[in-house]
Fold this sequence. Notes:
Elements: E1 3-8, H1 13-25, E2 29-32, H2 44-55, E3 62-66, H3 70-76, E4 84-86, H4 90-98, E5 104-108, H5 114-126, H6 133-147
Parallel strand pairs: 1-2, 1-3, 3-5, 4-5
Amino acid sequence: MEKITIASxxxxxxxxEDIKIFLKKRGCDVLDMGSSGNESVDYPDYGIPVAEKVSxxxxxxxxxxxxxxxxxxxxANKFPNVRAALVNDVYAARMxxxxxxxxxxxxxxxxxxxxxxxxxxxxxxxxxxxxxRHQRRLDKIKEIEKGMKR
Length: 150
């Protein structure tokens, strides 16, 4: 059973609940790391724990949602080994996996409707990393991460 972790701020909470149902129907084991409801929260409080777990290898893939997806994307990409891709269409979701081997999919809860979000998630989960020249490019990013002070 594929394990998917998902988290959101208040602006993504409604879409997160819909995506959880979609993932469970696909047979995924879903770990919800918050938030819930419409009460205002700070997206880093939910993005950081998820990105940390992906960074250290505890999680293989995750989905983050905030209002536009921009904040969660910025937060997640601060962590080594994280390749968080903010996507707004199905093509970008496919390329995020095939070319960038994205391990976190980021969606804007105020940007994407439920149907589009589900199709982007499905496409990302079904796509396979192509390797080859794309791996060479990811290796160059890994070298940047090695040189950064933590």
